[in-house]
Amino acid sequence: MVMSSNKSNSLLKIAVFLGGVLFYQEAAISKTYLTTEEAATIFYQNNKMQKIMLSLTKEQMKSIKKKSGVRVRNSEMNIWRTDAGDWYIVDNVIGKHENIDIAVAITKDGKVKGVEVLTYRETYGYEVMNKKWLAQFKGKDNTETLKLDKQIKNISGATLSCRHVTDGVNRLTETWAQILRYL
User: Fold this and answer.
1) Residue 73 pairs with which residues in a beta bridge?
2) What is the pLDDT of residue 124?
3) Which end of the chain is more exposed for a tag (fewer CB within 10 A), N or C?
4) Where are the alpha helices (DSSP H) in the chain?
5) Of the candidates 117, 124, 106, which has an alpha carbon nearest to the alpha carbon of residue 44?
6) Please, are residues 153 and 128 in contact by the beta-carbon 8 Å criterion?
7) What is the pLDDT of residues 26-79, one digit of tens each?
8) What is the pTM of this model?
9) How far apart are CA 95 and CA 120, in angstroms?
10) Could you tell me the end-to-end alpha-carbon distance of the chain, in angstroms, rounded to an integer?
11) 104: which strand partners?
């Protein structure tokens, strides 16, 4: 009897361990589709870009949140300006549980030139990388807050990723309107 109980306990421990490993692997799925440089090339070919060091103040972060409706999570920005005055921003948004790294190109007039997903870490909802879906952002600016199911179509099964990418674009166009256009 004791031997059987020890064997059951061992099997239970193995099952719990394997379950944890499988869960961890599912949660840790990550795929990089484009590097920062590859996305920059898509938007600006081989145009020169200059890295701009920018740290948002608490007041700027509050103001951007107030106008865009989206909290600014990072005060440090990864931005570049082209010789033509356009902007290239690498940022991240939350999908359902994990970060989604995005690149957003904004013209010198504040209109979205394009959006690309760089790294996607969720187990589902990857449809936000669809070129047709991402193309909806082209030409948008901060003059109206983009809403899912209004100006931006939703993708069934990827609702949170769609909403958060949309929120990220709203936040970045508002960042352009309040700060970048004056640099």
Assistant:
1) none
2) 84
3) N
4) 2-27, 36-44, 58-68, 131-135, 159-178
5) 106
6) no
7) 455 788 999 999 999 999 998 999 999 999 999 999 999 999 999 999 999 999
8) 0.84
9) 8
10) 77
11) 89, 115
